[in-house]
Design a protein that fits this description.
With 1002 residues, this protein is mainly β. Helix content is 11%, strand content 30%. It has eleven helices and 68 strands.
Length: 1002
């Protein structure tokens, strides 16, 4: 039976990384003497349904509550759909849409649907998810408005769109785990008809939306019962279809509920809000006697969740009175809508039903109607339009927050929608001598943009990374049509900082709209935000700018101009020109992929095949993840000849391939090669070639870079440094490289130095899966672990010279490394050292890294002496404020801060204004288990008092939490009488550095 012994669990982000998969969660959960079986994942990372094995609820609660891997948990309770009050056969007309007194009620006690239809009758582009008992998607009054999954082929038993659900053509049945959400009970079909029964088709009834797209998501069975976990899975399905598959799900209708709170359900609804999905839910149908209850005192979930995207709906009758069965709540229920004697579709026909279940879809239908009129409105704007557009009803004044009943016309006429802004044009500047930059911006509003508000204060520009520099203003040059209108285009002019654009101005410039500057005619202000960027890349002397992604040769190498004969500068033509011009040259590459297509071998002039470098050259891209140089299997990518020098910065080099005895598929270096903030990925040698990523017989420096997934048909998957070669590697990662012989990550026969390097997850068929050495290797603060080798010595083989503080997973037969000597942590085949690292991924910075997980032995185990000042991501070393010692490897684990102020927000504008004092002595805490209470072990602090030495500054109410691991935190205050916390909400701290929390009203 659903709910029996089952629990909804959310793991911490760190536990999710360690688990790696749903099956991997078992060891993390089986603590505290209770064993669990994973039933399935529920859609969010780390959110799973588990079954306790032979344990009481009290034992499960204790075990999960004390488990550090668990962020929250809750019982998988049964949800029971609201029971319909007995039907009155007199109510056979849609009085809720237009009340003429046909039922003996009050004329115009309705939602004014016909008046709203003069503006819009709906849109098939708006998808409404109905989470209920299913929907009769074959009903003649619904079939044309049922959503169809464009990525799924019906009834072929295949998950065509690879979303994890087979044959989800019209939605999904989470109760029976199949792709057929057909209605067993009729409840969901009735809900669907109110929202979107086909209008003006000559049959049956009319939905609030004549056209729409209804997505049936079934979780209630024929007994009107369903598991909370299935409801959560249905919500997550709707969210994922919007987030990952582009389905325009904008509203969820939830005509059901329970008195049991579940953090997993709240979490799923909140995540829906993050994706701009409105969640409309029934307030509930009272107690067992059918008498409505006060949700302020007796919460009913999900209606009682205080979330920005939730609308809770009570039921009114044909006289605009609250029905006797409807729950209410002056704080917890938003508005009423018709819910007595509602005629709608049922399987096989039509029927009349009562309940808040029937009221909620009226609100859902109006929400979809508003979105068909203003499709870009946010969930919060839709909610505000609905709540501000109600008809005030005296009898509802003390029953619901708005004191009113839904009105569709009032919603459509309401205007809480802020103007939208789009950057149309901001060209990059690549030539010296210009004095201005012109940009074009379009403002759009559902009513009209106030042209008077469009002026020179709207736009400002800042140079990226220039925190100390002053913003650059933008002068307004023109506005098309000086009258107010729904769309207005403005042109702004930005002056060069020094009067003329020159190389000193080079960089990325960010274009911002100031908040509260551009208004619509009703005073709604466009949000301040980043609009876009433009790049200033004026060449220095000796700098060559590439403006084409084609692979063409230079028309006349040596004439000082990189030109393929058509006016374009390609990467190949720029290299040819640089080779022909004595001295240092720099090639600037914008974001994009530069693919080699000119085949040919046996020449060293960069005319065909690989890119030959014969002089001194630096190539600078827009970032390793943005600028890609791809040989596409044609040849190796770069060849640095003896006496030449190449420096690669902020690029990715991939797709190199050599055959026969040719070495170095990514780069063959016989001169000097420096690789900075770059990636060498997916290059391979075939035949007997060595050095999949790099073959080095010259001088090599690698810093803050990644060599990953390179392959060698011989030695050195990532790097082979040959006899006579010198390699110095700092703050870099070798991961996922393979060698058919020795040295999956690195094979060294020359002189090699490793400082704060991570070598992990590499593979060799021979020995030395991580590093195989027959030359000289000196290493410090370096992590070499979790590599494999078929012939033995999975991590290291050969003789090493340790400078201390290295972590070696398995030493094997290698020499020069001993556990506990000069800070080295060295494992053996019997007791390997587990570095506890995360997967290779974007952890911030220019290139992907393996993060050190909490509890890793590499944390604070390095040596500060000689350590680089930053890690591979340019994060400062050390980071841990409690220790002050650097970590081993290329990754320095970082910490974040939360700062804020508690104050009395008298005017409710969310900003501390003059006369609004800070509140000292309040307890603020991080609610780690999200139960709303300050528990043992949860960080807490008191808001500050005024500092008498700085009386000119109001320092009361300040609080701070420092030294935090990145992750999601809920900041909560210990409530005091007559105060209610409204901000801040949950925070997701996923980037390194300091995060300041905006001051929150009280």
């Amino acid at each position: 039976m659903a709910g029996s012994g089952r629990w909804i669990v959310r793991l911490t982000p760190e536990a999710v990384q360690r688990a790696g998969s749903v099956a991997g969660t078992i060891p993390l959960l089986n603590q505290g003497g209770v064993s669990f079986r994973v039933v399935r994942g529920l859609g969010l990372p780390g959110q799973i349904l588990v079954q306790a094995v032979d344990a009481s609820p009290a034992a499960v609660e204790k075990a999960l509550g004390q488990n550090p891997n668990v962020a929250y948990f809750g019982f998988d309770a049964l949800i029971i759909g609201p029971q319909a009050v007995p039907n009155d056969p007199r109510f056979q007309h849609l009085y809720g849409l237009e009340n003429t007194g046909q039922t003996g009620g009050t004329s115009d006690a309705d939602i004014d649907a016909p008046e709203a239809w003069e503006i819009t009758t709906g849109s098939r582009d708006i998808v409404v998810a109905i989470i209920d008992s299913g929907v009769d998607y074959t009903h003649p009054d619904l079939a044309a408005n049922i959503w169809t999954n464009p990525g799924e082929i019906p009834n072929n038993g295949i998950d065509d769109d690879q979303n994890g659900f087979v044959d989800d053509v019209h939605g999904y049945d989470f109760r029976n785990n199949d792709g057929d959400p057909m209605d067993d009970r009729g409840h969901g079909t009735h809900v669907a008809g109110t929202i979107a029964a086909v209008g003006n088709n000559g049959i049956g009834v009319t939905g609030i939306n004549w056209t729409s797209s209804v997505m049936p998501l079934k979780f209630l069975d024929d007994r009107n019962q369903g598991a909370t976990s299935d409801a959560i899975a249905a919500i997550n399905y709707a969210v994922e279809m919007r987030k990952k598959y582009g389905v325009n799900v904008r509203v969820i209708n939830a005509s059901w509920g329970s008195k049991l709170d579940n953090p997993g359900l709240r979490d799923a609804i909140e995540k829906a809000g993050w994706e701009d999905i409105l969640f409309v839910t029934a307030a509930g149908n009272g107690n067992i006697l059918g008498r409505g209850q006060n949700n302020d005192l007796q919460p009913f979930y999900p209606a009682s969740y205080d979330l920005d995207n939730v609308i809770a709906v009570a039921a009114s009758d044909f006289n605009d009175r609250l029905t006797v069965f409807s729950n209410y709540g002056r704080q917890s229920v938003d508005l009423a809508a018709p819910g007595l004697g509602i005629v709608s579709t049922v399987p096989g026909g039509y029927g009349s039903r009562n309940g808040t279940s029937m009221a909620a879809p009226h609100v859902t239908g109006v929400a979809a109607l508003f979105l068909s009129h203003v499709p870009y409105a946010t969930a919060l704007e839709v909610k505000e339009a609905i709540l501000s557009g109600v008809d005030p009803v005296p009898g509802l004044r003390r029953k619901v927050a708005t004191g009113g009943r839904l009105n569709a016309l009032g919603t459509l006429l309401a205007d809480p929608v802020a103007p939208r802004v789009q950057l149309d044009r901001a060209d990059d500047i690549t030539r010296a001598g210009g004095t201005v930059q012109e940009i074009q911006v379009t403002y759009t509003d559902n009513k009209a943009v106030s042209v008077a508000s469009v002026d020179a204060n709207d736009i400002y520009v800042v140079r990226s990374g220039d925190m100390a520099g002053d913003p650059i203003g933008a002068a307004l040059i023109a506005v098309n049509n000086q009258n107010d209108g729904p769309t207005r285009t403005a042109v702004y002019r930005i002056a060069a900082p020094g009067g003329v654009w020159d190389p000193a101005d080079n960089g990325i410039y960010e274009i911002y709209l100031r908040p509260d500057e551009v208004l619509d005619v009703n005073g709604n202000a466009a949000w301040g935000r980043l609009l876009g960027r433009f790049r200033v890349d004026v060449p220095n002397i000796g700098q060559i700018v590439v403006n084409s992604f084609d692979d063409r040769t230079d028309a006349n190498p040596g004439d000082g101009v990189s030109d393929d004969g058509t006016g374009h500068s390609t990467l190949r033509s720029a290299i040819q020109e640089a080779n022909a011009q004595p001295g240092e040259n720099t090639i600037a590459l914008s974001a994009g992929t530069y693919t080699l297509t000119l085949s040919g071998r046996g020449e060293d002039a960069a005319a065909t095949g690989d890119l030959d470098v014969t002089d001194t050259l630096t190539i600078v891209g827009a970032g390793a993840g943005q600028t890609v140089i791809d040989a596409n299997g044609l040849d190796r990518v770069f060849h640095v000849l003896p006496g030449a020098s190449l420096r690669l910065v902020d690029v990715t080099v991939r797709g190199g391939r050599t055959t026969g005895e040719d070495d170095g598929a990514g780069v063959y270096n016989a001169g000097q090669l420096t690789i900075s903030d770059s990636e060498l990925r997916s290059n391979r040698t075939e035949g007997s070639g060595q050095g999949g990523g790099v073959y080095n017989e010259g001088v090599l420096v690698i810093e803050r870079s990644l060599l990953a997934e390179n392959q060698s048909a011989n030695d050195g998957g990532g790097l082979l440094s040959a006899t006579g070669g010198t390699a110095n590697i700092v703050n870099s990662t070798f991961s996922g490289n393979t060698a058919a012989a020795a040295g999956g990550g690195i094979r060294n026969a020359g002189d090699l130095t490793l400082l704060n390097v991570t070598v992990a997850l590499n593979t060799a068929t021979g020995t030395g899966g991580g590093v195989a050495n027959t030359g000289s290797v000196s290493l410090k603060n370096t992590l070499i672990a979790r590599n494999t080798a078929t012939s033995g010595d999975p991590d290291v083989s050969g003789a090493f010279t340790s400078q201390g503080n290295n972590l070696i997973g398995v030493r094997g037969s290698a020499t020069g490394l001993a556990d506990g000597v000069i800070g080295d942590l060295v494992g053996s085949a019997q007791t390997p050292r587990d570095p506890q690292i995360g997967p290779l991924q974007d952890n911030g910075g220019p290139t992907p890294t393996h993060a050190l997980l909490p509890g890793s032995p590499a944390l604070n185990a390095g040596s500060n002496v000689g350590a680089p000042a930053t890690d591979q991501r340019n994060v400062a070393r050390p980071q841990d404020p409690s220790d002050g010692t650097v970590d081993i490897g290329a990754f320095e684990r970082y910490f974040v801060e939360i700062r804020g102020r508690k104050f009395v927000d008298k005017n409710g504008n969310g900003v501390q204004d003059d006369g609004e004092p800070g509140l000292a002595g309040w307890t603020i805490f991080l609610d780690l288990n999200q139960n709303g209470s300050l528990d043992a072990g949860e960080p807490s602090t008191k808001t500050s008092e005024d500092d008498p030495d700085t009386s000119d500054l109001d320092e009361a109410g300040l609080y701070a939490f420092t030294g935090l691991e990145p992750g999601a935190y809920t900041v909560v205050e210990v409530q005091q009488a007559d105060f209610v916390q409204t901000q801040p909400r949950s925070l997701q701290l996923s980037d390194w550095g300091t995060v300041s929390v905006g001051t929150g009203p009280t």
